[in-house]
Amino acid sequence: MGKGGIIIGFLYIIGEKTYFAHFYSGLMRIVPKKCIPTTRVKILEHIRNNDGNIIGRVGGVFLNSLNMGKKGMVEEFVLAIEEFKNENTNSLIMENLSLLNKDDVKLIEKRTGLKIINGIKVLTFFLPLVLKEICKGLNENLKEKEVLIIGEDEILTKQIIEALYKEVRFITLAGDYGDIIGDISEYIMEKTGLSIFYSKKVDKILTNYSIIINLKDNYYLNVNKLRQKAIIFDFSISKGIRNQANESRGTIIIEDFMFKIDYLDIKKNKFINVLIPSYFYEQFNRLEPKDFAGLSIGGEFYNIESFLDYQIRIKGKL
Hints:
By secondary structure, the protein is an alpha/beta fold. The protein folds into 2 domains: 6-116, no CATH class; 120-313, Rossmann fold, CATH 3.40.50. The protein contains 8 helices and 15 strands. The radius of gyration is 21 Å and the shape is globular. 33% of the residues are buried.
């Protein structure tokens, strides 16, 4: 394809904060907020690759401002996407993905025919690399750490364990696995040789784990039972554990990994930062360690070194 064409691409749905930040830049900052259009927001910008071809488009849908229940909010979102998408659209990237849960995502995908990119493939791939870097910086042995995985999805749980089994020796599962726990345990034993422990009463064993990986939406985790300075990787869509964090116990919740945009085939765009989250990075089908930049914690960015300095070393070992 020559320059200036259209490639099958994605819709990048920005949130209200990003939308108004765009309008308040430059001369537009003098315009009263009430005069800025917020209904039926149109496509704001095209996203192009380095050859100038359109690979995606930016639009705004303000889920957190809709004065309605979850069902109505999802319905309005579906209607907006139907208006935005065209024959070249194949996926959705959502800046405010955490306003949804797994069931919402499935419903939106079914109604729109588009795949919502959630970044879990990227998070799974980079998780062992991140854990190794953290433990290396602390002069600790990752193989001696006990890991707790909270989930309910068989396929995703297997993928996480397969990504980790060469680096850790002790993995426990908790959550709503029901009858599939036997299948998971048997599969992992045959595939990796690792014996998996399953606990139905996780509160009683939380103090055993310095590394916790949450895959389940809206899961209640008794943070008062956690080992002090435990690290939680919240890979759920809704990111609900952050609302339960107990700062007095030094609870650390890593919600996402961040990546450099430098090596991606994408032109500079005012709606896309130089550091992008996993769900945006995943759209480009890359899994390159050199792209990794750091961690997203409470909306703040930390590279591994600053994370170790400010989140771990001053608070103690894992």
